[in-house]
Amino acid sequence: MTTPPPMSLLAELTHRCPLQCPYCSNPLRLDPRTSELDTATWRRVMDEAAAMGVLQVHFSGGEPMARPDLPDLVRHAQSVGLYSNLITSGVLLNPTSLAALADAGLDHIQLSFQDALPDPADRVANMAGAHAKKLEAARLIVAEGMPLTLNFVIHRQNAERVPAMLLLAEQLGARRVEIAHTQYYGWGLLNRDALLPDRDQLALTEQAVTEARTRLAGRMTIDFVTPDYYAEEPKPCMGGWGQRFLNISPTGRVLPCHAAESIPNVEFPSVADASLTDIWENAPLFTMFRGTDWMPEPCRSCPAQTLDWGGCRCQALALAGKADAADPVCHKAPDHGLVERAITTRPATPPAFRYRRYGNA
Amino acid sequence: MTGSLTPPPMTEDCVPRFARGTRLQYDRVRETWFIQAPERAFLADAIAVEVLQLVDGARALAVVIDTLAEKFDAPRTVITQDVLTLVNDLAARQVLVRA
Ligand code: SF4
Ligand code: SF4
């Protein structure tokens, strides 16, 4: 049986970033600039991705605008028929850099915000003036006519302002907005006590999203990502391991998801050593959790196994110490007590953030 | 744009176009058509493919309907229903806008 090809490629061009968000999805050990892939290699990777059936490329990081070759890469994506999306913090965006990207054929921008208010936003980013720069970036993008998605990461210290975030997205003229609760691995796990909301906070965010969806139907799309600690079942992480997504790290490691570098005892395939197709179909990192054969109980006999694929492997590893365990957020998982304990032992006052930067993990 | 109401449905005299950042694209690997949109790709069914290939920001929907009624030798009322349903569904998903 041949494996259907991936739909999307997340191209993490660099781990460098002027911001230091304590929930950053990058690994705790950040790749240094000196080991980043060069322009020619990224071009070749996109050629291979388009040929194997990838439809969209998401340029991400770190801050992808820290790479001066970004417009070249966007132009190349366009020339091979890949839909191009830029996932950016916006702090390096100005009229010149935006014009270069638009000219290169960039299709869409996803701009991240830390909050609806400047002070708490800059405190999360650990960068003075970041929020103001983002507002300016949003205005430039909308004025240019490029479709814009705003992304807000939600946690206990900003959850109450979800209605204000939705209003801000509407006022800025965003076409989409993502209200995405923090996911607790990597830096997010390290900062869990400072970030995990309580059940009431979660309910208020859900309510705000439901109301805004009715009000803004047909004008703004709202995507909501729940904090899976409060869910009954886990999320189908990445649409199933090795089924829809390819992630390439700044150094060229090919991964099923951005946290997969935490998986122990397996070789990480690299674009330097094999073709993307070969890696996708044959690399042990991709085949080890693809489908349902690897599953232990309770997943092995669970009717939900092809809906959520047993949840997130990296979360199982981070919490239960075993990448092949049922995701502990599942109520049927033997390690579910770990998630309940994280909720009940959450301190009343959030501790200080451990900021995301080189050498701070 | 802020404060504007959800636009009324498109009718035969409207001229649709693709919103910036959306397009119809043939996938040679899966041998099928997709609608590419911000951070998602929708599978386009046979009707969508026929209609969207005629969406160019210049043709009114009435012309699209006439063309398809002739091409498939089908009653105009049936085609009209299919086209308007599809176009308004895609407008609600911000894929198509008025030219
Ligand atoms: S989450 Fe924050 S620190 Fe991490 S890459 Fe994005 S903007 Fe930079
Ligand atoms: S037992 Fe496994 S497959 Fe079933 S819901 Fe839980 S994590 Fe998903």
Q: Quick recap of the structure?
A:
Chain A is α/β, with parallel strands linked by helices and 361 residues long. Helix content of chain A is 35%, strand content 13%. Chain A has helices spanning 39-52, 70-79, 95-104, 118-125, 130-144, 162-172, 187-190, 192-195, 199-215, 276-282, 284-287, 305-308, 313-320, 336-344; strands at 8-12, 56-60, 83-88, 108-113, 148-154, 176-181, 221-225, 245-248, 254-255.
Give structural notes.
With 361 residues, chain A is an alpha/beta fold. Chain A contains 14 helices and 9 strands. Chain A has a 9-stranded mixed sheet with strand order 7-6-5-4-3-2-1-8-9, covered by helices on one side. In chain A, β1, α1 and β2 form a beta-alpha-beta unit. With 99 residues, chain B is of the alpha+beta class. In chain B, 35% of the residues lie in helices and 21% in strands. Chain B has 3 helices and 5 strands. In chain B, strands 2-3-4 form a 3-stranded antiparallel sheet, with no helix packed on it. A two-stranded antiparallel ribbon of chain B has the order 1-5. In chain B, α2 packs across α3. At the A-B interface, loops of A face loops of B. The structure holds iron/sulfur cluster (2 copies). One iron/sulfur cluster binds next to α12 of chain A.
